[in-house]
Design brief:
Blueprint lengths: L4 H15 L3 H10 L7 H5 L4 H17 L8 H5 L7 H14 L2 H5 L10 H13 L2
Helix pairs in contact: 1-4, 2-4, 4-6, 6-8
């Protein structure tokens, strides 16, 4: 299945902007186009630390101002819970815990036995917070 070159280019642009610290610009983009939530998972798994931390900050901010809309990122985040990188799994779990409802957070229980102890501990803490 061929990739949409425009979508690939847009993801690259968002990642580059995020790496440069233009979080407010990216927030404005997401506020004006909710279809961008489909890209959250891809961007959260970017190899660049600043892009990943920026995506976390983006979702945290949009969760405050647009809690219902930000849930559109859940499918792409849930797909990362089995990612090979423990950092990506942990970041995705944190965001699912933040923006997901009780039903979404049930999926996090599978990470309680994650091979990476930090991921398992973070998920344990997330699940204890909801009690």
């Amino acid at each position: 299945m061929p990739k949409d070159p425009e979508a690939t280019e847009l993801k690259q642009m968002i990642a580059d902007y995020m790496e440069q610290g233009f979080l407010s610009n990216i927030i404005a983009m997401f506020k004006s186009d909710s279809s961008l939530y489909d890209m959250v998972g891809t961007l959260l798994s970017d190899e660049r630390f600043r892009v990943r931390i920026g995506m976390t900050a983006l979702i945290e901010e949009l969760h405050k101002t647009r809690p219902d809309e930000v849930r559109k990122a859940l499918p792409s985040l849930l797909s990362l819970l089995g990612h090979e990188s423990p950092t990506v799994r942990g970041d995705a779990a944190y965001l699912v815990g933040l923006i997901g409802d009780e039903e979404d957070r049930v999926v996090l229980k599978s990470l309680l036995n994650d091979p990476n102890p930090q991921v398992a501990e973070m998920v344990r803490d997330l699940l204890e917070q909801e009690d």
